[in-house]
Every structure is written in C-alpha cells, then in structure tokens.
Design a protein that fits this description.
The structure holds three protein chains of three kinds. Chain A is an all-alpha fold. Helix content of chain A is 67%, strand content 2%. At the B-C interface, helix 1, helix 2, helix 3, helix 4 and helix 5 of B face helix 1, helix 2 and helix 3 of C.
C-alpha cells in the first residue's frame, strides 16, 4: 500500500507544488532579469525587492471577473486552457530530478514514473499541447486570436519536426529511451552529452524557444500585429492558466535539455574523484541549478534579440534546422557504427 | 480484476466517443471526440503492455493526423453544413441496413468461432529471444524481418507528402 | 491468465469497426467520413495489438505501425483532395462529389 499509493502520491504532490512555485517565481525572475538588462529595477513595491510580487499577481488574477464572451463555443473555450496546462504539467512525471536516494530507510528514485519510453512520452504529450492553442484561438470566435493560434500551431508543428529528429540523435548516443538511463549513460561516458552532441543541443534549444513561443519567436503574441495572441479574449483565472502553461513549458524544455545534454542530477565532472566534495550537494539541487541556468538564457535571449519575421521563422525551421538535424543524425549514426 | 475493470471502462469510453464522433453536428467537436477516442485506444495499448505503440498512437494520431483534420476543418469555413439541406434521392435507410448487415456478419463469425472453443488457446508461440523490453523487440523486428516493408512505407509517406502539396497548392 | 481474453478485444474491435462503417455510410460530410475511416483503422489496430500481446509476439505491433503509417499518408492526401474540392465547389458534401473532373 505504501509502495504503490502513498509514495507516488507524495511524489506527485511535491513535484506539482514545486513546479507551480517555480512557475510563479519565473514571472518575477523574468521581470527582474529584463529590468536588469534595461537598467531598471523591476517590481520593487510588494515585499522587499518585490519578492512577494507573484503572490500579489496570483491574487489579482484570482479575484478578477472571469468574462466569457457571448459568441464563444463554451465547452471548447473552457477546455482550451485546461488542455494546455495539463499537457505542460504531466511531462514532469518522467523527469528524473535526482538519482536513487535513501530516505527514512527506503530506496526512492526521484522521478514520479520511471518508464521505459520516457523520452517518447515527453515528445508525444507535448505534441498534444498544440490543441490548447488551436482551440483557444478558434473558440474565442474572434479574428486576431484565430490568426494568432494558426501562427502558433504552424510554428509548433514545424519546429516539432526538427526537435523530434534531433532527439533521435540523442537516443542513438545514449542507447535508451529511459530518462534516468540517459543520465546514467552520461555518467558512464564521463561526459555530458552537450559535448558529444553540441549541434543537437543548439537545435534543441532553438526549437524549444520556438515551441514555447518565446522571443525571438514570439510571433503568436506579437502585440503590434495581433493585439495579444490566442488568449486575447480570456481573462481572470483562465488567462492565468495560459500564462502558467507558457512558463511551465519553458521549465519543461529546460528540464528535458538538462536531462539529455547537461547530465541531469550529476554533479560537474562526475568521474573526477578530486571533486567528490561536490557530491555532498544532493542531486536535485544540481538539477535545479542547471535548469535555472537554462531558464536564465531564455530570459537573456528575450531581452537581447529582436523578433523574427514570419517567413524568416519558417525558413529557419524548414530550411536550416531540419536539414541540420538530419545531417546530425546521419553523422551520429556513422560515428556510432565506425567507432 | 483490475484489468477487467480497466478494460470495460476503456471500452465504454472508446465506443461512446466513437459514436459521438459520427453523430455530432459540429465538425470541430467531432474532431475533438476523435482525439479522445484515440487517447483511450492508446490507454488500451498500455493495458496490453504495448507501450511503444501507445506512445506512437498519441504522437502520430492525436498529435499529428488529427491536428491536420482540425486545420482543414477550420480552413473549410462552412456557410452551410452538408447535413443542413435534404437530398431527396439519398437513401439513409439503405446505409443503416448495410451497417446492420456488417454487424450481423461479425456477430455470426463470433458465435460460430467461439462456441466450439470454450477457452481461447493460451500463448503458444514461444517468445522470441528475450531481448529488452517492448521497444527493443518491436524495433528489432522492424529493422530485420520487416526492413523492406519499412522502407516501402517510407516511400509511401514521401509520395503522400508530395501528392498533398501538389493537391493543396493553388499554383505550382 | 486473466479474465479478459482476446475475444473481448475482438468484440470491442468489431463494435468500433461497425461504428466506423456506420459513419461512412450515414454521414454526408466528407471530413466526418475520413474520420470514420480512421476509426475503422483503429479497430483493426486494436485487434492486431490484442493478439500480438496474447501470443507474446511483437509482429502484430509492427503491423499496427504500418497501419498507422498508411493512415498518415491517407490523411495527408485525402485532406488535400478535400481542400481542392472545397476550393472548387465551396462544399464538403460527398453527394456533390459526383463529377470526375470540373
């Protein structure tokens, strides 16, 4: 009973709360980092240096009036944000936050579900997220959200090809689809896969920026052209769900990139005995540090680069990233056979 | 016992949503019910311990093919739904009868084949060399015994891709 | 082994097949007809996978993967045809699809 129900339940609740807290504070981090880049202070009023700002924001969105426009398709309009946030959150089920640890005399692996097809599960679940976007735009029964959702879904589908193709190279290098085993393969190789597959890492990160609709690929939310994106008609809690899903997706991309390319929960230089002092820090802290490093790059990119034009975006996806991904796959396969 | 409950619940959901797919008037809702049907079919595959196929089902069907349907449904912005006006020559009752005939035929096959054999034959075919899990075994078969069909399937997909572009593009 | 035999899965598959056939025969919206064909293909896949897992032989699953590949190809070409037809006649009613060329 304890093994089958209680422990998984505790894991699910812990991961859920941790992810939601991380998402809430991502909003603050984003505003602070962007402000810092632009020589401003960012939010300062709520709490010391604005640390309570996310709580104030959440409260504001909760108590705001939740407007349902009269001409919308009610069922679909309600379902869209839920689909988006659920597909973003369930991915965390297979992310290994740490290795096996012994707590209270029990051996516990720090991932909710250690399944054999972990990486494929992530790809397939995140391919469902596009429904939230298309349906949100369509159900709003409004011009700009529909255009924005068509942009977003075309962008998502295009970059998904490149990202999935590049994941095949990683699978080839690791020899497994199990997320925890991929980390162990990096321990075994004594090398993070970012050094084995640098091209793959770059393509994955660019694809991740595009799939989360982040700058410089934030065309679906281009305020100058499209009012506010596919969630223009949403307000209150449902709007908050769209924002939560966007930040949760950023954390998903960073976590997957960390697991696949940056050695997951492993400490830096896992095979150098001289640095074994670093092993005193628990694995999940290393994992979080790496994830936040990547999230910082997300924000850094946003504050630095201007937005792409739509034809440039499509050209980059189809004519640069996909051929590069295929070439990378062929080279990795050849290296795997020859070496 | 748990397996039985899971099977009956999943079957009910699959059939229920499948019936909704073909009866709903709103095409977008119909597409959404199709997605749900496919997701529960994927769950059924998990129950049958075919994890790889379950994931492929979600990835290709729910995440790929049905998104394509959704795009087309939105592009085909209908002023008058096809069922809105009546065609005097359409013989719906013939369709119903034909469907009933298929059902009766399948029922007949079941009764004839199941009456004789009370218990279905237990697993006879010896498990092939026990390498790894489900993914490894499917991959092994796909790239050894079924390599040529696999390559043919890839050609088929390429031809379909070119064909779709030729059909959908206004001028080439 | 368990209370659920392949026969149960075969019945489910047959029922789903009949639902798909009914959709093809009774609806006039060609998009719905295409979706019914997907239901029929899924019914076949359920059968293949059920027997594959019963016989502990993955060949059935390999076949199911080919079925999915064919379904993807069919959907791409079929939806292309629907779009081309819609462009000419502003309709997706299959009863109006009686001319071989326009």
């Amino acid at each position: 009973m304890i093994e089958t129900v209680l422990i998984p339940l505790i894991k699910v609740i812990t991961v859920f709360i941790a992810v939601l807290a991380a998402v809430a504070y991502m909003t603050l981090l984003e505003r602070k980092v962007v402000a810092w880049v632009q020589s401003r202070l960012g939010p300062m009023r709520v709490g010391p240096h604005g640390v309570l700002q996310p709580i104030a924001d959440a409260f504001k969105l909760l108590v705001k009036e939740d407007i349902t426009p009269s001409q919308v398709d009610r069922g679909v309009y309600t379902a869209a944000p839920i689909i988006l946030i659920v597909t973003a959150l369930v991915v965390f089920a297979v992310i290994p936050f740490g290795g096996e640890t012994v707590w209270f005399g029990r051996k516990i692996s720090l991932s909710v579900a250690d399944i054999n097809v972990g990486l494929l599960y992530i790809v397939s679940v995140s391919s469902l997220g596009v429904y939230g976007i298309i349906l949100g735009g369509w159900a709003s029964n409004s011009k700009w959200p529909l255009l924005s959702s068509l942009r977003a879904s075309a962008q998502l589908v295009s970059y998904e090809v490149a990202v999935t193709m590049i994941l095949v190279s990683v699978i080839l290098t690791a020899g497994t689809l199990n997320m925890a085993e991929i980390v162990r393969a990096q321990l075994h190789a004594g090398l993070w896969f970012v050094f084995v597959q640098p091209v793959a890492f770059v393509i994955f990160f660019i694809g991740g920026l595009a799939e989360t609709n982040r700058s410089p690929f934030d065309l679906p939310e281009a305020e100058q052209e499209l009012v506010g994106g596919f969630h223009t008609e949403y307000s209150g809690m449902r709007f908050a769900f769209f924002m939560l899903a966007e930040y949760a997706n950023m954390i998903v991309v960073s976590s997957v990139a960390t697991t696949l390319f940056l050695g997951g929960w492993l400490r830096p230089f896992p095979n150098v005995a001289a640095l074994s002092l670093l092993g005193l820090v628990p694995g999940w802290i290393w994992f979080s540090l790496k994830v936040f490093g990547l999230l910082y790059v997300f924000l850094w990119v946003r504050a630095t680069l201007p937005r792409y034009r739509y034809d440039q975006l499509m050209r980059l996806g189809w004519k640069v990233l996909i051929p590069l991904a295929i070439a990378n796959l062929i080279v990795s396969a050849a290296v795997k056979v020859l070496v | 016992m748990g397996e039985a409950i899971a099977f009956y619940v999943l079957s009910a959901l699959i059939l229920g949503f499948a019936i909704l797919v073909i009866t709903t008037r709103n095409t977008v809702h119909s597409v959404l019910f199709l997605v749900l049907t496919f997701l529960f079919v994927a769950a059924l595959y998990v129950l049958l311990s075919a994890e790889f196929l379950a994931v492929i089902q979600v990835l290709v069907y729910a995440g790929g093919i049905v998104v394509l349907y959704l795009f087309v449904v939105m592009l085909v912005n209908l002023k008058r739904p096809p069922e809105a006006y009546q065609d005097a020559h359409r013989q719906t009752w013939l369709g119903l009868i034909l469907g009933g005939v298929v059902l009766a035929e399948l029922a007949a096959i079941f009764t004839y084949s199941l009456v004789g054999t009370t218990t279905a034959a237990t697993a006879t075919a010896a498990a092939p060399e026990a390498i790894g899990g489900n993914v490894e075994r499917v991959g092994w078969l796909l790239y050894t015994d079924y390599l040529i069909p696999f390559e043919v399937a890839s050609m088929l997909l390429l031809v379909a891709m070119v064909g779709a572009i030729v059909l959908a593009k206004r001028e080439l | 082994m368990s209370v659920i035999t392949p026969a149960h899965y075969a019945v489910l598959s047959a029922a789903l097949f009949v639902v798909g056939v009914m959709g093809v025969l009774l609806r006039r919206n060609i998009i719905i007809i295409f979706m019914s064909i997907e239901l029929i293909l899924n019914a076949v896949n359920i059968n293949l996978v059920a027997f594959s897992s019963h016989l502990q032989n993955e060949v059935g699953q390999v076949f199911a993967i080919f079925v999915i590949a064919v379904a993807a190809a069919e959907a791409a070409v079929g939806l292309g045809i629907i779009l081309a037809f819609y462009r000419n006649k502003e309709s997706v009613n299959i009863d109006e699809m009686s001319l071989m060329r326009w």
